[in-house]
């Protein structure tokens, strides 16, 4: 649920710098993952920003590619990772979307859209088992294959299964970008493109001197403030920044929260949940979740605005 009191600022310049850095470091094609509306940062805006730096894009479904108008934005192919059940091959081809396939039947049905083979190397989801790989390649005229690799050994498994078919291969997402052996013919970064690009904040609307129990939980703090952002916006207890100082979100309600503050903090001061030195990894550790979840959750907490710095 979005709040009019939460500001979500996206730095397109940072996104472009990240994509360019990945391309230089890896030295292979970059397939930019823009699924889930670019992790909440805006798939179309991201695509427009980095179209000249990447070889294509990656989404979960045809509907995501159409919503972001990716083919008209960049005229580069988009890989769809999820099932294409009930989707016409002609519709995929018209949108420049190549569907991932893992059965011979779907490869044959979607042949017109130039399907891409997804090989199971351990994920056990939306992927082809080793014994069916040859049949799928033959059925769909496959010239490209990939896997969802979370460890370097998954890359080796992919190569051992399909290496003799002379296919374009990719396996590395963000976690394996620094492994040269994982880069193959292309890499598929998602989080690495977006790190440091979102700044999310809210303002103090009340300031109180503490020293006695407050809130639903009866927390005690020397001084605290109230913000208009709560768990319906995805906020959790964890770190924040107020006037350059690390503080804590002390308690979260549905549409408001209590925040630790210092003696010099006043009504109207910003409380930053992400950005200004507060990185996705730190928040994810406090929330006990992934960095991707932090981004996708908090970028949906308010209306986005964009800047290029």
What does this structure look like?
- The chain is α/β, with parallel strands linked by helices and 309 residues long.
- The chain folds into two domains: 12-194, Alanine racemase (TIM Barrel, Alpha-Beta Barrel), CATH 3.20.20; 198-307, Lyase, Ornithine Decarboxylase, Chain A, domain 1 (Beta Barrel).
- It is 29% helix and 25% strand.
- An eight-stranded parallel sheet has the order 8-7-6-5-4-3-2-9. A six-stranded antiparallel beta barrel has the order 10-11-14-13-12-15.
- Strand 4 (78-80), helix 6 and strand 5 form a beta-alpha-beta unit.
- It is elongated.
- The chain starts with 6 loop residues before the first strand and ends with a strand.
């Amino acid at each position: 649920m979005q709040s009019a009191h939460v500001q979500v600022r996206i730095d397109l310049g940072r996104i472009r710098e990240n994509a360019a850095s990945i391309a230089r470091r890896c030295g292979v094609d970059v397939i930019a993952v823009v699924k889930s509306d670019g992790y909440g940062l805006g798939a179309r805006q991201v695509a427009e920003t980095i179209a000249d730096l990447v070889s294509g894009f990656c989404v979960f479904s045809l509907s995501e590619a159409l919503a972001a108008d990716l083919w008209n934005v960049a005229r580069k192919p988009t890989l769809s990772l999820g099932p294409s059940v009930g989707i016409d091959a002609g519709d995929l081809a018209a949108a420049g979307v190549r569907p991932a396939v893992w059965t011979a039947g779907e490869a044959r049905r979607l042949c017109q859209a130039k399907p891409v083979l997804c090989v199971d190397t351990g994920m056990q989801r939306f992927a082809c088992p080793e014994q069916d790989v040859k049949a799928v390649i033959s059925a769909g005229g496959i010239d490209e294959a990939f896997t969802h690799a979370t460890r370097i050994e998954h890359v080796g498994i992919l190569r051992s299964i399909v290496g003799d078919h002379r296919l374009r291969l990719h396996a590395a997402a963000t976690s394996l970008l620094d492994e040269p052996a994982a880069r193959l013919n292309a890499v598929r970064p998602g989080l690495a493109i977006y790190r440091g690009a979102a700044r999310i904040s809210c303002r103090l609307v009340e300031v109180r001197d503490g020293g006695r129990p407050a809130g639903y939980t009866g927390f005690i703090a020397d001084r605290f403030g109230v913000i208009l952002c709560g768990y319906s916006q995805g906020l959790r207890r964890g770190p924040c920044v107020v006037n350059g100082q690390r503080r804590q979100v002390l308690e979260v309600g549905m549409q408001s929260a209590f925040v630790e503050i210092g003696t010099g903090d006043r009504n109207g001061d910003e409380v930053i949940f992400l950005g200004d030195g507060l990185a996705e990894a730190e928040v994810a550790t406090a929330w006990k979740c992934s960095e991707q979840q932090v981004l996708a959750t908090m970028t949906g907490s308010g209306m986005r605005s964009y800047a290029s710095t």
